[in-house]
Design brief:
392 residues; alpha/beta; Cytidine Deaminase, domain 2; 6-stranded mixed beta sheet; 5-stranded mixed beta sheet; 14 helices
């Protein structure tokens, strides 16, 4: 099959719609279940490239949670701590496979954004991963294969209409890629940049110590950015993206957005949040929404009389600004990556507030000296990659 007809394009009024191979060859994908749409395939193909490269760069199984052609989360398959298992709502599933851990991390980094995601997996989907996926609100999944048990579980999802795509892991796209805008064809060489340890060899700060763990996080940050709509900034810790700021016109806004998401990820691990006593009937999605509001300046929306009773067994204490600041101060050794250079030191100042110690960015700003000086002030390690990673 060299084409798949789609119901419509980005929007219902955009017809006809299809994906196809211009050279007449067979598509490298097979739809095993459901009827994926235009945006589903955009998310699937971008997401699969991301996890394929993460696996190649780290040797670990990888997963990503995509929404509107940018990752909401990306991670490799490292074991989950008890705390992470709890905040990702998987503590009842027992010990998970590495691939399932990768998806739990990718989904859990920003559960608000991941709601209704499209999933990409680097390895054959196993039963553990399928069980996790089955209970989340998701549009579909792409993987190089599925175990018989995993496929059976996923086919039960969404009343039998869940989108399941199998991709040929040996597929190699053409070196030149094209797309049309306003009837005009754009052409460019594919971004085949190999993101490996050598890319981070130009360390420009006084502190030049990058432990292996941080080097893996740098790879994850930059590979994630390679498939995130620009401008973009990514915060990573312990093998997973914890905050992604995508598609902002100003880089400082990317840094702030990614930082606020990273802060929320860490705040969810605070005793005040872990101790929330939800009523039994409140589902995971509603718990996520409640937690998000509880941690925000709008906390009264879920704590006022008549509202807290709909969510909690016991009314929680206010999570004050002072308590949040004290908890966030414990977040350390975070890595920050940027898809283009930081033009001002304000990005470093904001990154520092979210525990960033390691930075990877292209460099090349006329203010590089001020950016380096700011990083040195906080004892950070900053590598200039010399490579921009815009993606549109």
């Amino acid at each position: 099959m060299n084409e798949i007809q789609l119901k419509y394009g980005c929007n219902p009024n955009q017809k006809p719609s299809r994906i196809f191979m211009e050279d007449g060859s067979d598509l490298p994908v097979e739809v095993l279940n459901g009827k994926p749409g235009y945006i589903n395939f955009l998310d699937a193909f971008n997401g699969y490239q991301l996890v394929k490269e993460l696996k190649e760069a780290t040797g670990l199984p990888a997963a990503t949670s995509f929404k509107h052609v940018s990752p909401a989360g990306a991670a490799v398959g490292l074991p989950l701590s008890e705390t992470l298992a709890k905040i990702y709502w998987v503590d009842d599933l027992g010990e998970l496979s590495p691939l399932a851990c990768a998806y739990a991390r990718a989904r859990g980094a920003d559960r608000m954004s991941s709601f209704g995601d499209f999933i990409a997996l680097s390895d054959e989907c196993d039963a553990d991963t399928a069980r996790l996926i089955k209970r989340e609100v998701s549009d579909g999944v792409i993987a190089p294969g599925y175990s018989a048990e995993a496929l059976a579980l996923l086919k039960e999802k969404k009343k039998g209409n869940y989108n399941i795509i199998k991709i040929d892991p040996s597929y190699k796209p053409a070196a030149i890629e094209r797309k049309q805008v306003y009837g005009i064809t754009f052409e460019q060489g594919r971004n085949e940049l190999d993101i490996n340890g050598d890319l981070f060899g130009n360390i420009v700060t006084k502190n030049k110590d990058i432990p292996e763990k941080a080097l893996i996080d740098m790879k994850i940050a930059m590979i994630t950015l390679k498939y995130t709509q620009s401008n973009s900034v990514c915060y990573v810790k312990d093998g997973q993206a914890i905050g992604i700021g995508a598609g902002q016109q100003s880089r400082i806004h990317c840094t702030r957005l990614a930082g606020s998401k990273a802060d929320n990820w860490f705040l969810r691990q605070a005793p005040e949040v872990l101790g929330l006593q939800f009523i039994d009937s409140l589902g995971r999605a509603d718990r996520d929404n409640t937690i998000d509001v509880y941690m925000s300046d709008e906390y009264e929306d879920v704590l006022k009389e008549g509202e807290w009773q709909k969510r909690f067994k016991v009314k929680p204490e206010v999570f004050t600004v002072e308590k949040k600041k004290a908890w966030l101060a414990k977040n350390t050794d975070v890595t920050c990556g940027s898809d283009a250079f930081f033009p001002f030191s304000d990005n470093i100042e904001r990154a520092h507030k979210s525990g960033v110690k390691y930075i990877a960015q292209p460099g090349g700003s006329v203010r590089d000296d001020l950016v380096i000086e700011c990083a040195d002030k906080y004892g950070m390690v900053m590598a200039f990659t010399g490579i921009r990673l815009f993606h549109h």
